[in-house]
Amino acid sequence: MGQIISFMHISLDGFVAGPKGEMDWIKVDEEIFDYVGERISEGDTALYGRVTYEMMENYWPTAADKPTASKHDIEHSKWYSKVRKVVLSKTMNEAGLTNTKIISDKLADSINEIKQQTGQDILLFGSPTATHSLMQQNLIDGYWLFVNPIILGRGIPLFEGIKDKTKLKLLNTKQFASGVTELNYIVKA
Length: 189
Hints:
It is a single chain. By secondary structure, this protein is of the alpha/beta class. It has a single domain, classed as 3-Layer(aba) Sandwich (Dihydrofolate Reductase, subunit A), CATH 3.40.430. 30% of the residues lie in helices and 30% in strands. It has helices at 30-40, 50-63, 71-82, 107-116, 128-136; strands at residues 4-11, 15-17, 43-49, 84-88, 100-103, 121-125, 142-148, 156-157, 168-175, 181-187. It has an eight-stranded mixed beta sheet, sandwiched between helices. The protein has a two-stranded antiparallel sheet with strand order 2-8. Helix 2 (50-63) crosses helix 3 (71-82). It is globular and about 40 Å long.
């Protein structure tokens, strides 16, 4: 049975993107790529909102084929091609998509059905709107946050529309040379 783990870069003041969706403030380097690559290899399902999925689809299927492909590009492209993809979207359909399931309604029922299937963690990448929808229905089991050393002041918050307290248990932390700090939480029952 899989758990949904939300993977997000976040500013110190709790934003996942700037006011217009900007993510140019996110620090990534080989150290973070290597660390994330090891962890995501434990997941066999990736969960996205439509916008993030379209960004991923436009890059990862062919990223390893580019002459300038980095080690990270090659590894993540290989993982992306194998992983089951689930997309939350009211406008997309599954026609012509490979290894991809679209959820357009009955969010809680559909997500719980996926969680019951045999498999590993279900990794929710980016996708603030999808994350907010899942949070509001208490469907996220853990948060894997990469706190970037920046205060944005405004933008798209990670925690939005939360009605009830959600207690978390810190599993571990990791400091990176770039100043990014990883915080790994699970939701307490």
